[in-house]
């Protein structure tokens, strides 16, 4: 168990279909804490870095163009084992085979337009959070003035 930060990108398919609230509410309901969130237009340069592992694939250019179709919403979530939790809530790459109950399983029928990107390991998550957010853009919950909302017992409020 470790306290982790992980990156979620609400892709143009989520933005254009008006699914931002639906998807982010799932992570909030689960109990993950939103540490950072912003809308941004991705660039070819940033996507070459982010999707470097896809560089040899026939769909690489098409995926990059899809990711630049409109601004995306980039989120950083924090929680114990957050990387694995978010990844399991995401579901398989192809929305047609992703299990119902997962985000891709519930909201898409495509491999490419699959609603969200989520970091796939703690190492990748650390790199991706660093790629998309400056440290000052992330809220540190340990400085939260309302920590009793999460840890009432430690604050002797119950
Ligand atoms: N066969 C394919 N056809 C079209 N697009 C694809 C295909 N495979 C992957 N992609 C696109 O490239 C993205 C990255 O592919 P990857 O293999 O890293 O999948 P993933 O880890 O499930 O997705 P992500 O990294 O976005 O969370 C996918 O999310 C999808 O948008």
What does this entry look like structurally?
Keywords: ATP-binding, Kinase, Magnesium, Metal-binding, Nucleotide metabolism, Nucleotide-binding, Phosphoprotein, Transferase. This is Nucleoside diphosphate kinase. The chain has 158 residues and is of the alpha+beta class. The protein has one domain (3-149): 2-Layer Sandwich (Alpha-Beta Plaits), CATH 3.30.70.141. The protein contains seven helices and four strands. It has helices at residues 12-16, 20-30, 44-50, 60-67, 82-90, 103-107, 122-132, and strands at 3-10, 33-40, 72-80, 116-118. It has a four-stranded antiparallel sheet. The two termini are 26 Å apart. Bound molecules: adenosine-5'-triphosphate. Residues 54, 59, 63, 93, 111-112, 114, 117-118, 120 line the site of adenosine-5'-triphosphate (ATP).
Secondary structure blueprint with pairings:
Blueprint: E1 3-10, H1 12-16, H2 20-30, E2 33-40, H3 44-50, H4 60-67, E3 72-80, H5 82-90, H6 103-107, E4 116-118, H7 122-132
Antiparallel strand pairs: 1-3, 1-4, 2-3
Bound molecules: adenosine-5'-triphosphate (ATP).
**Under the CATH scheme, which class?**
Alpha Beta
Mean of residue pLDDT values:
93
Q: What CATH architecture would you give?
A: 2-Layer Sandwich
Work out the radius of gyration: 16 Å
> Could you name the CATH homologous superfamily?
Nucleoside diphosphate kinase-like domain
Query: Helices and strands, in N-to-C order?
Result: EHHEHHEHHEH
Task: Sum up the overall morphology in one term.
Answer: globular
Beta strands, count: 4
Q: Which strand order spans the largest sheet, edge to edge or round the barrel?
A: 2-3-1-4
Q: What is the helical fraction, as a range of percent? A: 25-40%
- Calculate the terminal CA-CA distance, rounded to whole Å: 26 Å
**Number of continuous helical runs:** 7
Which compounds are bound in this model?
adenosine-5'-triphosphate
